[in-house]
Amino acid sequence: SQTIHQWPATLVQPVGSPLSLECTVEGTSNPNLYWYRQAAGRGLQLLFYSVGIGQISSEVPQNLSASRPQDRQFILSSKKLLLSDSGFYLCAWSVRDASYEQYFGPGTRLTVT
Amino acid sequence: GNSVTQMEGPVTLSEEAFLTINCTYTATGYPSLFWYVQYPGEGLQLLLKATKADDKGSNKGFEATYRKETTSFHLEKGSVQVSDSAVYFCALSVVGTNAGKSTFGDGTTLTVKP
C-alpha cells in the first residue's frame, strides 16, 4: 500500500532563517506531487506541483522554492522565512495518468516568530 | 477555468441530526468530483468520490451524487455523530489536464454537539 511521510511535524523558526520541509512517498512510482499551504481557518493554497524529477511548477510568487531530487521525494525550501510563511504545509500525491484523487501527508505546522 | 463553491460555515448540529453541505462547481471539461475530510491537526483524507454523472459516492454513512444538470455534488449524512466534527472540502479534477491538479472549495467546518 502507498504511504506518504512529512517531516518535521512541527517547526518554530525565527524570521530570516532558512527552511527545509521534506515529503516522501512509498509504494508508488512516478507520482504527481504537490505542496499546499493552509493558513489558520482557511482553505488550501497550491504552492508547487511536480510531474517528474527536476520538474517544478510554481503556482504563486513567493519566497519559497521546491525541488524534486528523486522520484518520490519532494522538498519545500526557503532561504529567509517571513512571518507570513507561518501555516500548515501539506504534501500530496496523485496517480500521474489518472488525475484523480489526491493523497495527503500528515502536514507540518510551521510557526515563524 | 475551474471553480468550486461550497456552503459557508461553520455548521453546528446536534448528534443524530441530518447533514447537508452544498457544493457547486464550474469546470472546463468533464470533472471527477470529491469530498475530503480534515480532522483537527491532520492532513486531508478522501471521503468519497464520483467520476461520472449520476454516480453516487458513499463512505462512512456519507453520500454525494454527481448532478451534471445542476453542476452540484452535495454531501449528506442521515445521522451525524460527534466524531464527524471536522472540516469538509469539496473538490474537482479534470482527467488528463493540469498535471492532476485539483480545485478545492474553501472548506466547511462542522461541529456536532452531544
* Residues in helices of chain A, as a percent range: under 10%
The pLDDT mean of chain A sits at: 92
Q: Tally the helices of chain B.
A: 0
Helical stretch tally of chain A: 0
Spans where pLDDT lies below 50 across 5 or more residues of chain A: none
User: Separation of termini of chain B?
Assistant: 41 Å
Q: How many strands, which pairing sense, and closed or not: the largest β-sheet of chain B? A: 6 strands, mixed
Main β-sheet description of chain A: 7 strands, mixed
Structural class of chain B: mainly beta
Task: Characterize the quaternary organization of these chains.
Answer: heterodimer
What is the string of helix and strand elements of chain B? EEEEEEEEEEEE
Q: How far apart are the first and last residues' alpha carbons of chain A, in Å? A: 38 Å
Query: Can you count the beta strands of chain B?
Result: 12
How many β-strand runs of chain A?
11
* Strand residue percentage of chain A: over 45%
Percent strand of chain B equals over 45%
Largest interface: A-B, 26 and 27 residues
Enumerate the spans of chain B where pLDDT stays under 50 for 5 or more consecutive residues: none
